[in-house]
Specification:
heterodimer, A: 111 residues, mainly beta, 11 strands, globular, B: 114 residues, 7-stranded mixed sheet
Amino acid sequence: GQSLEQPSEVTAVEGAIVQINCTYQTSGFYGLSWYQQHDGGAPTFLSYNALDGLEETGRFSSFLSRSDSYGYLLLQELQMKDSASYFCAVRSDTGRRALTFGSGTRLQVQP
Amino acid sequence: NAGVTQTPKFQVLKTGQSMTLQCAQDMNHEYMSWYRQDPGMGLRLIHYSVGAGITDQGEVPNGYNVSRSTTEDFPLRLLSAAPSQTSVYFCASSPAGLAKNIQYFGAGTRLSVL
């Protein structure tokens, strides 16, 4: 089966850098995605890695190591609005283009 | 740009009642899916559809039915609501062929079953 492991909670201060790790197990790998979800909101797409290395999108970067089944999301210059839950996800074994999500990491940004 | 629209936003049901959660998208996406999210957990796939007339089960399909008569609409039917179905339900759509497999989510339906 598939599984994704990520820390349940991370706390950081405004302006700092935080890294959210994700390890995964899946039979077929089609890339690692990251989604952000604010309380009461819908998940929104942040980043995607199909190949090893770093992808940068503004203040957010995502890294993938396929040999280690590991990735991380890096958030720089943290802002209060970055307080949210962050989910890593891989393509589901059961649902073709559907995703299997990790349990999420709740990021609290403190002033 | 409406994107993915879910109705209702909130619903309270009694055990044994049935209801349909509506989902519509205006992006002409072939792929649609339903997830449920329980407190402190990730999203779990209930059912999905790869196009009009084609549906299949996901990870947690029991107690739910779906149909896909048009590209735009993908309703989720609760046959006989149970307290275990209290959850937040998200509908998502995705265009075919996009390598990034970006899922576009609706705002969710918050369902309580008493």
